[in-house]
Prior knowledge:
The chain is an alpha/beta fold and about 425 residues long. The protein folds into two domains: about 45-185 and about 250-430, Alkaline Phosphatase, subunit A (3-Layer(aba) Sandwich); about 190-250, no CATH class. It is about 35% helix and about 15% strand. It has twelve helices and 17 strands. The strands form five sheets. Strands 1, 4, 5, 6, 7, 8, 11, 12 and 15 form a nine-stranded mixed β-sheet that branches. Strands 2-3 form a two-stranded antiparallel sheet. β16 and β17 form a beta hairpin. α9 (about 255-260) crosses α10 and α10 runs parallel beside α11 (about 295-320). It is globular, with a radius of gyration of 23 Å.
Amino acid sequence: MSDVACHSADHFSRRTLLRAAGASGLLWLTPIAERLARAEEAAPRGKPAKSIIVLWMQGGPSQLETFDPHPNSAVAFGAQAIDTAVPDIQLGAGFEQLAEQMPQIALVRSIVSKEGDHERATYNLKTGWRPDPTLLHPSLGAILTHQTTDNVEIPRHISILPGAWPARGGYLGDQFDAFKIGDPQGPVPDVKAFVSKERFQKRVQHLHALEDNFARGRLKDLDSQKTLHRTSINAATSMMSSEQLKAFDVSLAPQSQRDAYGDTPFGRGCLAALQLIKAGVRCVEVMLDGWDTHANNHELTRGRIKILDPAFAQLLRDLKAENLLDSTVVLCGGEFGRTPRLNPLDGRDHWPHGFSMALAGGGLRGGVAIGETSPELPDGKPNIDRDVKQQVRVEDLHATVLTALGIDPQTEMMTRIGRPMKFSEGTPVKELLS
Length: 434
């Protein structure tokens, strides 16, 4: 039997194992076999994605003006919607370019969370866990870089325009924290020496000699178990002389391409994300803040959409043109949504009871909208228990993305204090896994 045939037979048997057992009424699966069968059933049918780009909308974007519009309803308060390239799916007004890319996008309109505070909700969305005073959980990018190895001389986890709560390595270690940079039109910080090459090399040699003397005796494993100082120094010096640093430089892109993303820090960040993914970086997070619209919601949201629409749409176009879309998950959203009613300042307040995220690429199913929120306002006070259909928890979203990346969400890691922790306690959303 050929290798291809062997693979196909193995794929069939594992994927159908649980279904066949259930259909025949045979409850003979061991717990391990059952877990493997369920994992195979949930897994995407194509190759797993290699990378992820997170477009982080800090402040909590209103779902009603972005990915879950209800025009001419009680909750719209005048907000309008536009048709997209997928029949029966609309986006908020202003997303003219993104609307054309809708066949590649999945909208999850029914995300629910128990966190309505910015800091706690940001932690929740970036890690898939609620804050725990005894433990710091890793972000999606940290998990991905921890679970993969690459011959890349620049950081594999990068945050562009980072906010107050950047992506962290958590219990996996600080070495998996995101490398932070500002507007990509400026130089990458701290990668150029201010002395000659010869003098710089001598300084590094002297530093290593000093550390060798310090680490004698019982401290031989100081770097691997404690400080990671030498590891960090070696990585930094390799990066300083790497040709891959050019991936940060958006000025090398054609002017027409730069214009397509928009002349904004966020637009340049999305272009840099494309270049970095091409260079082998595993995770890039680009932040667009200003979504905390407690006052003048409609006006402020229009301004954010004007920046987001061209950058998001062009990123998808370029990823597809570079044959990178199938291997790259793109996730766009913020820490929660906004209330389905306006406050006295014409703003919308925090609302974690049914908000939206957009996903694309990575083998995920496009052209769909998962879940539904009600456009009604009974007595002016939405009933949060009934207004969201087909609820998707934050941990379910994380489990879905991890699965698309070829990482078992149930994978357990041992923390530094000997506490076993799963990457996620969520259940992958099957409708999103092609």
